[in-house]
Amino acid sequence: MSAILDYFAAASDQHAAAALDNLVDLDPDTIGDMPGLSPDTPARPRIRLAASGTPVLQLKGVEPIVALGRLEAALTARPYDEVASGARHGSLVAMSDDGDSLVLTVTDELRDALAELDAAAVAAAARVWAIDEEGEPSKESVPVLSAFVELSAGAVNRGEHIYCRVIV
Prior knowledge:
Elements: E1 4-10, H1 13-17, E2 32-33, E3 48-49, E4 55-59, H2 66-76, H3 80-84, E5 92-95, E6 101-106, H4 108-115, H5 119-129, H6 141-158, E7 161-167
Antiparallel strand pairs: 1-4, 1-7, 2-3, 3-4, 5-6, 6-7
Helix pairs in contact: 2-4, 4-6, 5-6
């Protein structure tokens, strides 16, 4: 059984902690499309608005510690060990009483680096982040990275941070 990973933007750790209880509407069936997106938009991970108005990118398999740490190291030209030792790298914000749901931080350094990427930079970052057997970006890496760029740019514009709600 794989974890569900909800990446979302929030103004503070306190607001992000509310995702354990107050963002129960992050289920795929109840998340609406972002305004301005056509239903004809090609299938790719998309940011959607929860009923609460929270922008959400729901993924499986892109975990916030190692995968996003590797991405941050590549985008900021810092060693992975330095990224991983950062105070807000995957820091626990909140955990449910039964331990099956938690909220972790995504660093502002990664958010800022992602927000600055254009399409060419996304493709270049995908090549060093998620490589398939032929040394090319996997089919999923560019669309996933593009969705992270969109979420990050919106968060920067609103003065928010990025978080990950993990449900196991």
